[in-house]
Amino acid sequence: MSRIIAGTAGGRRIETPPGAGTRPTTDRVREALFSRLEHLEVLEDAVVLDLYAGSGALGLEAASRGAAAVTLVEADRRAATVIRRNVADLGLRQCQVRAEPVERVLASAPSERTVELVLADPPYDVEETSLERVLALVVPWLVQDALLVIERSSRSPEPTWPADVELIGPRRYGETVMWFAEYLPEGEIA
């Protein structure tokens, strides 16, 4: 079991999917991540995509802390079922769960850009070329100045960012590294 750190559902426990296929972000790393996101003022009323959602801990934390809409994308149907239960148990109605592969969801880009924050925690065994493809597919979803946060093993290389996505910098937490980047179309400088 894991828990929501803060916000409307703060302190409440969430169920994690059974088996070794899911690696929930630790409470300590999540607390550090969301402290930074709140400092950057990107959570309140944000539209969030949680890719490779696993237990849903990142997206649920964003919803608890004030995100207006959160789409949690998880290909594993058992994990998606657990996320749906967590959403219902926590009463986070602004959350939508999509039990589909990330690439399939992203390939169906919306007619307008709405996403302000992307949280992606792919399994560590996802190859860099697959992650590069996912990052390219997410761009049509992003509003200007959208923030992307990619969680990887500290042994993984920096993700390959698409054009118009600029690295802000990594944050390391033991075995975990969070890569922060911003969508700045037409070469705009932050």
TrEMBL record:
The keyword rRNA processing does not apply. Gene3D superfamilies: Vaccinia Virus protein VP39. One of its GO terms (molecular function) is 16S rRNA (guanine(966)-N(2))-methyltransferase activity. Keywords: Methyltransferase, Transferase. Its EC number is 2.1.1.171. Residues 1-25 are annotated as: Disordered. InterPro entries: RNA_MeTrfase_RsmD, SAM-dependent_MTases_sf. NCBIfam families: 16S rRNA (guanine(966)-N(2))-methyltransferase RsmD (TIGR00095). PANTHER family: METHYLTRANSFERASE. This is 16S rRNA (Guanine(966)-N(2))-methyltransferase RsmD.
